[in-house]
């Protein structure tokens, strides 16, 4: 690696996202011409949190690029659980809606778990429904969460072996850490999941051949915490006035990493491209 510049160590999420979106676009063209079906994604946003609004907008723009019909359902912050479930039931029955995305987090008075369970499992583009999560857990990967799916796709793209490798995941959320661990276990990696209560984080991260960090703590991972030659995915996003920061101290950690994702321009665009792929998959299997 010493004769290569740092550039080559960077996993460019935008480039990979473009490739995936190209595949999705072709798949959609085929579906439209073979069956006359245009995939549809319904996004549901409750309340007007600016970050959530931006993420939903990014997803709609991606839909436009690949040829997915996107509908935007905006509910005011004071919406009741019953009203939210009622909208989801309507979308479940709508034959032109193949994927449903309930943007998280929800306002505090609502129950996200119950709302996600209301989504028809076959329309669960996010892969958050307990049915899809359960299938993932037993090694039957259908609709899986987009970010972990994107990480696996990137490893495949760069021919990084997984079987028998030491994988360390920092963060045990239902949306990233837990499904990520299941996907690596399904591929026979040795998996450690660290989180806020982990006693000595560095002890684990130093042993990682593949490190996935999804803690939401700016620059949590420093250069002295990673192994030389590690492959590192930074899932964190901390928005500050002067910019967006990841969970990894990129400038310094890149010197030791074989491959690393930047923030922004890494896992984020990849996640959105995979979401597009899932909507296509939903439309292909359920029209
Ligand atoms: N049901 C649900 N599904 C989600 O997939 C979901 C969600 N809720 N809630 C919030 C998180 C966050 N998320 C992001 C996706 C893309 C970028 C992304 O593409 N970011 C760009 C721009 C970053 C910036 O400028 O702030 C980048 O990283 O380059 C970021 C964040 C999806 N989420």
From TrEMBL:
<keyword id="KW-0511">Multifunctional enzyme</keyword>
<dbReference type="InterPro" id="IPR020630">
    <property type="entry name" value="THF_DH/CycHdrlase_cat_dom"/>
</dbReference>
<feature type="domain" description="Tetrahydrofolate dehydrogenase/cyclohydrolase NAD(P)-binding">
    <location>
        <begin position="145"/>
        <end position="285"/>
    </location>
</feature>
<dbReference type="InterPro" id="IPR000672">
    <property type="entry name" value="THF_DH/CycHdrlase"/>
</dbReference>
<dbReference type="GO" id="GO:0000105">
    <property type="term" value="P:L-histidine biosynthetic process"/>
</dbReference>
<comment type="subunit">
    <text>Homodimer.</text>
</comment>
<dbReference type="GO" id="GO:0004477">
    <property type="term" value="F:methenyltetrahydrofolate cyclohydrolase activity"/>
</dbReference>
<keyword id="KW-0028">Amino-acid biosynthesis</keyword>
<keyword id="KW-0658">Purine biosynthesis</keyword>
<comment type="similarity">
    <text>Belongs to the tetrahydrofolate dehydrogenase/cyclohydrolase family.</text>
</comment>
<keyword id="KW-0378">Hydrolase</keyword>
<keyword id="KW-0368">Histidine biosynthesis</keyword>
<comment type="pathway">
    <text>One-carbon metabolism; tetrahydrofolate interconversion.</text>
</comment>
<dbReference type="GO" id="GO:0006164">
    <property type="term" value="P:purine nucleotide biosynthetic process"/>
</dbReference>
<dbReference type="Pfam" id="PF00763">
    <property type="entry name" value="THF_DHG_CYH"/>
</dbReference>
<protein>
    <recommendedName>
        <fullName>Bifunctional protein FolD</fullName>
        <ecNumber>1.5.1.5</ecNumber>
        <ecNumber>3.5.4.9</ecNumber>
    </recommendedName>
</protein>
<dbReference type="InterPro" id="IPR020631">
    <property type="entry name" value="THF_DH/CycHdrlase_NAD-bd_dom"/>
</dbReference>
<dbReference type="GO" id="GO:0035999">
    <property type="term" value="P:tetrahydrofolate interconversion"/>
</dbReference>
<keyword id="KW-0560">Oxidoreductase</keyword>
<feature type="binding site">
    <location>
        <position position="237"/>
    </location>
    <ligand>
        <name>NADP(+)</name>
    </ligand>
</feature>
<dbReference type="GO" id="GO:0005829">
    <property type="term" value="C:cytosol"/>
</dbReference>
<dbReference type="InterPro" id="IPR020867">
    <property type="entry name" value="THF_DH/CycHdrlase_CS"/>
</dbReference>
<dbReference type="GO" id="GO:0009086">
    <property type="term" value="P:methionine biosynthetic process"/>
</dbReference>
<dbReference type="InterPro" id="IPR036291">
    <property type="entry name" value="NAD(P)-bd_dom_sf"/>
</dbReference>
<keyword id="KW-0554">One-carbon metabolism</keyword>
<dbReference type="InterPro" id="IPR046346">
    <property type="entry name" value="Aminoacid_DH-like_N_sf"/>
</dbReference>
<feature type="domain" description="Tetrahydrofolate dehydrogenase/cyclohydrolase catalytic">
    <location>
        <begin position="11"/>
        <end position="126"/>
    </location>
</feature>
<keyword id="KW-0521">NADP</keyword>
<dbReference type="Pfam" id="PF02882">
    <property type="entry name" value="THF_DHG_CYH_C"/>
</dbReference>
<dbReference type="GO" id="GO:0004488">
    <property type="term" value="F:methylenetetrahydrofolate dehydrogenase (NADP+) activity"/>
</dbReference>
<keyword id="KW-0486">Methionine biosynthesis</keyword>
<feature type="binding site">
    <location>
        <begin position="171"/>
        <end position="173"/>
    </location>
    <ligand>
        <name>NADP(+)</name>
    </ligand>
</feature>
<comment type="function">
    <text>Catalyzes the oxidation of 5,10-methylenetetrahydrofolate to 5,10-methenyltetrahydrofolate and then the hydrolysis of 5,10-methenyltetrahydrofolate to 10-formyltetrahydrofolate.</text>
</comment>
């Amino acid at each position: 690696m010493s004769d290569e510049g740092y550039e080559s160590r960077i996993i460019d999420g935008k480039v990979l996202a473009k490739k995936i979106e190209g595949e999705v676009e072709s798949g959609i063209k085929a579906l439209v011409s073979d069956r006359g079906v245009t995939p549809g994604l319904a996004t549901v946003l409750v309340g007007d949190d600016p970050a959530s609004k931006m993420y939903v907008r990014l997803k709609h723009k991606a839909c436009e690029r690949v040829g997915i019909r996107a509908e935007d359902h905006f509910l005011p912050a004071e919406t009741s659980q019953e009203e939210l479930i009622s909208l989801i039931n309507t979308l479940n029955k709508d034959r032109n809606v193949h994927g449903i995305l309930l943007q998280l987090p929800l306002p505090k008075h609502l129950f996200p778990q119950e709302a996600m369970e209301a989504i028809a499992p076959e329309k669960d583009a996010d892969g958050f429904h307990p049915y899809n999560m359960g299938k993932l857990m037993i090694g039957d990967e259908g609709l899986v969460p987009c970010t972990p799916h994107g990480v696996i796709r990137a490893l495949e793209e760069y021919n990084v072996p997984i079987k028998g490798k030491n994988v360390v995941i920092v963060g045990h959320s239902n949306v990233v850490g837990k499904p990520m661990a299941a996907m690596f276990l399904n591929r026979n990696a040795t998996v450690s999941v660290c989180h806020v209560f982990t006693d000595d984080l560095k002890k684990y991260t130093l042993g990682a051949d593949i490190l996935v960090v999804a803690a939401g703590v700016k620059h949590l991972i420093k250069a002295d915490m990673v192994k030389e030659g590690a492959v590192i995915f930074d899932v964190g996003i901390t928005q500050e006035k002067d910019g967006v920061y990841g969970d990894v101290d990129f400038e310094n950690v890149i010197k030791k990493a074989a491959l690393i994702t930047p923030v922004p321009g890494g896992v984020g665009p990849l996640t959105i491209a995979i979401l597009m792929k899932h909507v296509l998959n939903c439309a292909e299997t359920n029209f």
